[in-house]
Amino acid sequence: MTEQQGSTTRWIPVHRQRLDSRYLFRRSSSVLIEHGSEVYQLRRTRAGKLILTK
Asked: What domains appear along the chain, each with residue ranges and CATH number?
């Protein structure tokens, strides 16, 4: 799987359809996810929980 940030492309290892969240949150505590025409924000809390908001 690839992730693009500006003009930089980063490879994110995916093993058997499982993605380690440490790769997603390597540089920040939130990521944006495009799903169809909608954009969601996935955040990691200080307690290590995940929150998905529209």
From this structure: 2-53 (2.10.70.10)
- Residues 5-41 have pLDDT tens digits of 554 666 777 777 888 898 889 889 999 988 999 999 9
Give the Cα separation of 17 and 28 in Å (integer): 23
Q: What is 23-44 written as a DSSP string?
A: HHTSS-SEEEEEETTEEEEEEE
Judge whether 51 and 40 are in contact, CB under 8 Å. no
- In terms of Cα–Cα distance, which of 17, 32, 25 is closest to 48? 25
**Is-above-0.70 flag for pTM?**
no
